[in-house]
Amino acid sequence: MERGDQNLPLKSPLIQLSDEDGTGCNRKGGNDRGIERGLIVAELKKQVWLAGPLICVSLLQYLVQVISIMFVGHLGELSLSGASMATSFGSVTGISLMMGLASALDTFCGQSYGAKQYHMMGIHLQRAMFVLLLVSLPLSIIWAYTEPILNVLGQDPDISREAGAYAQFMIPGLFAVALIQCISRFLQMQNIVYPVMLASVITTLIHIVECWILVFKTDLGTRGAALANSISYWINVLLLALYVKFSPSCSKTWKGFSMEALHNIPSFLRLAIPSAIMVCLEMWSFELIVLLSGLLPNPKLQTSALSVCLNTASLIWMIPFGLSSAVSTRVSNELGAGRPQAARLAVYAVLFMAICEGILVGSVLILIRNVWGYVYSSEIEVVEYLARMIPILALSNFLDGIQCVLSGTARGCGWQKIGAYVNLGSYYLVGIPSAVLLGFVFHVGGKGLWFGIICALVVQVLSLFIITIRTNWDEQVSFIELLHLDFSHNFLFLHEP
């Protein structure tokens, strides 16, 4: 939408809905003849073209931290332990929160794009960047005091000292991560994914060179790897910002900085905070399971095995996370455009893809279960224990993939508050208590702890699935009208003739 069009009356979410949804399905009554095969194939193609690059982006961003740890590993066991501890601490206290807060843009930007209210996308982006950068300030203080915090938590003093030094050099990168999350979602909701992937590829390649220079060719050592993280994140920000600024694809959605972004911040937070809670509650529960494994008999074996399971699960999770991002884009775009039946079709398509992906990846894991442990350890005891754990891990990854795409649907619809309640109940009223009961009372050990996660995933999947299948997609469009009411009023007021 051009500037001259901004005084037009706005309807939900900032446009008037049409009777036709563009898929051959009327808004009222749906398509009584069922969804044609061609529509399903077309939707699957859209999901694949969206999800493929987004999966690559997730993997590449994950690899930035992994590459740094790999370089640090050549400096010694203490350096490796400190860097790993700092990375885990940073993920729990910072990066997960940034991801959660930024996911509110899946709702706001996605629906605004579908509604063709392009100017509002830039306003939402600026508002999100302002909020996330503001939140980064107290988080940076926490990272600055990583060493004393870890000491209070009872960690080894030498490892805490290494982790503290590493975390301090990661602080500049925290602000970059906040911007990356915002700009990436801003572009993603416009179905612009290949430039984001290209920026991630360039950043990762540069990061390898940075790590080699800063770790081995300077006196920084471990701190050089952390500094390389920060530099690489800022390079990624620069590449994305240049694309937004100069690309014709963003000419309608980015009109430059505006004071409008400072209005209605509380309305943005009403979705951003539940989004953050939704993401953090899940990620923290997995980290807690690894911490609990240290209290089991033979803690070295249990902690090593569950750490490998967590790393494996995190790596595989990037695939359904890409699908999740794709469906949140499709659902929010279609609801914003007033096409509820197309949004429903997008959900069915991504569920089919997630189930197929879960079966395929789970089968591969089970086939390689006897050799996968050698990737992480040469200890026979660890490898054999992992071989027994992998079928359980395959089941949890299957369920995690389904909940991931259902959570993406929730973000696209603006159900973040519901998702936060579901995750709270699933992981902290069912999952963690079940893990403690199985692991420590019934003495099932590490497998019992992971079975607790499976219990949480079952409850989470069932809850989100019931909510999804019982959704009246026509009424969902009306809900979106209420969701964006504050923004509509503010937008109209600021652009009154």
UniProtKB/TrEMBL annotation:
It is a multi-pass membrane protein. It is found in: Membrane. GO terms for cellular component: membrane. The keyword Transmembrane helix applies. The chain crosses the membrane at residues 48-73, 85-108, 128-145, 165-183, 192-215, 227-246, 267-292, 304-324, 345-368, 418-442, 448-469. Keywords: Membrane, Transmembrane, Transmembrane helix. Pfam families: MatE. InterPro entries: MATE_euk, MATE_fam. CDD domains: MATE_eukaryotic (cd13132). One of its GO terms (biological process) is xenobiotic detoxification by transmembrane export across the plasma membrane. One of its GO terms (molecular function) is antiporter activity. PANTHER family: MULTIDRUG RESISTANCE PROTEIN. Belongs to the multi antimicrobial extrusion (MATE) (TC 2.A.66.1) family. NCBIfam families: matE. This is Protein DETOXIFICATION. It comes from Tripterygium wilfordii (Thunder God vine).
